[in-house]
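Quick illustration for those who missed Monday's session on complexes.
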Amino acid sequence: MIEAQTNLATNLGGVPLRNPVVLAAGTCGYVDEMADVIDLSRIGAVTTKSITAEPREGNRPWRILDAPAGMLNAIGLANMGLHAFVRDQLPRAANCATTVIGSVAGNSIGDYVAIAAAFDASPHVPAIELNVSCPNTADGLVFGEDPQSLRSLLAEVRPAVTRSKLIVKLSPNAPSIVKMAEAAIDGGAEALTLINTFTALAIDVHTRKPRIANGTAGYSGPAIHPIAVRMVRDVSRSVARQAGVPIIGLGGVMRWEDAAEFILAGATAVGMGTALFVDPRLPLRVVAGLGRWVSSQGCGNVSELIGQVEM
Ligand SMILES: Cc1cc2nc3c(=O)[nH]c(=O)nc-3n(C[C@H](O)[C@H](O)[C@H](O)COP(=O)(O)O)c2cc1C
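Prediction with flavin mononucleotide bound:
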């Protein structure tokens, strides 16, 4: 049973969260490993690592690198695959002290359907997040960078998710994130997460080779935060607010002020990823700071501040 927390209790498209702070996919283990370092009963939700149909070793090293005001990663979705995950990890969701969001990745529509259905079958996963920053091997297009690809994906995944709420995690690498948000909402998304990493490249000038073995890598951390805030504002104002679809703002949150910016831009919840590599206890500080901020703004609940930027 997830108990509400004072003035921070919120609701993500029908999923009650004790507070808005969500640990981001791929940065906090499979399910509840972070319980070794922080009290998960003080966090709004954890997101699982993205699960694929087959086990994946991921890309070869180097696959993580410090970058100015952030980091680069090309982990390549290293994970144990759906079968072992359902057998060994998913049962842990039953005893997790916070809400668990299941993250799904794949290289075909069939992969997404199978993994989403497996999460949906667990009563302990109230929300499923589709990581659509993956190429479809059938046509080479990244699901989350082409509105038609996303519509085709959701046409198959939507009917397979009957119990959990369906979240679509958008990529900032699409030509128009607003068009992607429209496609996600038309396809039945009940919430959106914005944003995944920016595709980036770091070059070793001595060897003239990419510094990350994969070549390109995803850029995350404080450097991307103001861009993510702008994207949340754009998507909220142009489509999501009118459709009643809540947003998890994600990208570069290190301090409570960063999280508060996302809320003012239109986010109902706020994710944290790279921050966990700096100090896994930072989310607790963000929760505490948000609580004080809501009171200082004269509000009884954080939801009163969603989208309240004056511009
Ligand atoms: C090391 C690392 C691994 C990640 N793995 C995943 C993943 O498996 N699935 C996913 O949807 N996003 C993944 N992400 C992206 C994050 O969830 C998040 O969208 C992004 O890093 C921006 O937030 P941040 O600046 O707070 O890290 C990963 C990010 C990092 C840094």
